[in-house]
């Protein structure tokens, strides 16, 4: 097995193998706290620089009542704003991606904004009396970029800047030359699952289930799969393929077709790597292409799985076929994980459910739960408080830590 060049956290000899209590997966009051203390205050990935190559190109991103638009200005600079007209709050752009010619026009009353977010002017300006346009530009959102990927957060939070947060991934992302990637269109890559977002993460944060639940991945790299844990909510999982030809059709042909990548360091050659970022984002990179996927909470009982797919430029026919086969393997794996998340989530409503008892191979689940407990101490309680008391109890426990 190739040695990984990362500072990682070892699994302790004696550790608490319990997971979060079942009530934390079905509480509307707790979900409201997660919105404010976990999702809006942590970095969220929106897309890549290549998704908006021209002035006026934009991406939108919605999260728990907040709406963002990321747009490239006439000066070539990428900026993030609240997707909210300063007149009556309408969306200034609609849809997930698009292009504005020279300006942004609110579809409600026709206020016009420049591509840098400044207000060019309202429609029928005399009806507003003395309106100072400098006071009514689109509201900016904190945004930073990492190897071309665009991150934003709606409110200040405990994470450092993106460059510092993702510094352990810097060498790998540079080796992959992620600044040069181009987008791939995958129709309707979005699915809503009837589960709490943490159930999706619980499945994805460990590889203990791979041998039985994912026959395709086990066939591809199961003998070499390893999970690594870093600080600041980062993790990495990797499996190397090609030591055996593979039994399944997709795996067998993928291992034959995937061209070598001598440009990559040894630990990334013939490797499928997954880089997890707290609270609910993953970069999945193979020698043939990459994607990020994002678990977007809609409510305490609904989670949207979505993301974006990319490839390297000047793709050969061989590489394109390998990328398609990797997509087939990943699509089957995703469907398997979705079913596991549903089963796990629904079990917590049963009176017979007594909580998790985690393997050393599931230490990533515990680390994710501990990070949530640090942010929301009320999650340490085994028994659910009254819904109308959860916020107050959490505030009181926060003062004690």
UniProtKB/TrEMBL annotation:
Keywords: 2Fe-2S, Dioxygenase, Iron, Iron-sulfur, Metal-binding, Oxidoreductase. It holds the Pfam family Rieske. Coiled coil: none annotated. It comes from the Bacteria. GO terms for molecular function: dioxygenase activity. Residues 43-152 form the Rieske domain. It is an enzyme of class 1 (oxidoreductase). This is Aromatic ring-hydroxylating dioxygenase subunit alpha. The lineage of its organism: Bacteria, Pseudomonadati, Pseudomonadota, Alphaproteobacteria, Rhodobacterales.
């Amino acid at each position: 097995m190739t040695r990984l060049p990362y500072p990682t956290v070892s699994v302790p000899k004696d550790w608490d193998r319990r997971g979060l209590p079942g009530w934390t997966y079905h509480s509307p009051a707790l979900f409201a706290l997660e919105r404010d203390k976990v999702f809006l205050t942590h970095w969220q990935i929106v897309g890549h620089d290549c998704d908006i190559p021209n002035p006026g190109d934009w991406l939108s991103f919605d999260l728990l009542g907040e709406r963002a638009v990321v747009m490239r200005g006439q000066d070539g600079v990428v900026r993030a704003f609240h997707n909210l007209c300063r007149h009556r709050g309408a969306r200034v752009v609609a849809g997930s991606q698009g292009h504005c010619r020279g300006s942004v026009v609110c579809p409600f009353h026709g206020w016009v904004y420049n591509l840098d977010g400044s207000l060019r002017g309202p429609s029928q300006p005399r009806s507003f009396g003395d309106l100072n346009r400098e006071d009514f530009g689109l509201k900016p959102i904190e945004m930073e970029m990492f190897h071309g990927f665009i991150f934003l957060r709606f409110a200040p939070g405990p994470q450092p800047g993106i460059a510092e947060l993702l510094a352990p991934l810097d060498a790998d992302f540079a080796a992959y030359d992620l600044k040069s990637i181009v987008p791939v269109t995958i129709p309707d890559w979005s699915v809503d699952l009837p589960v709490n977002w943490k159930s999706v993460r619980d499945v994805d944060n460990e590889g203990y289930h791979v041998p039985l639940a994912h026959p395709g991945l086990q066939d591809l790299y199961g003998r070499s799969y390893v999970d690594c844990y870093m600080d600041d909510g980062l993790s990495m999982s990797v499996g190397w393929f090609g030591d055996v030809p593979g039994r399944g059709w997709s795996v067998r042909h993928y291992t034959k077709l995937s061209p070598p990548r001598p440009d990559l360091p040894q630990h990334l050659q013939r490797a499928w790597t997954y880089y997890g970022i707290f609270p609910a984002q993953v970069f999945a990179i193979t020698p043939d292409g990459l994607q990020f996927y994002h678990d977007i909470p809609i409510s305490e009982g609904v989670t949207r799985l979505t993301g974006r797919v990319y490839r390297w430029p000047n793709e050969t026919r061989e590489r394109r076929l390998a990328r398609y086969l990797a997509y087939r393997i990943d699509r089957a794996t995703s469907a398997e994980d979705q079913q596991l998340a549903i089963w796990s989530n629904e079990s917590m409503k049963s009176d017979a459910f007594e909580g998790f008892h985690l393997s050393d191979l599931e230490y990533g689940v515990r680390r994710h739960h501990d990070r949530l407990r640090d942010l929301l101490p009320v999650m340490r309680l085994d028994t659910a408080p009254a819904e109308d008391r959860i916020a107050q109890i959490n505030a009181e426990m926060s003062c004690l830590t």
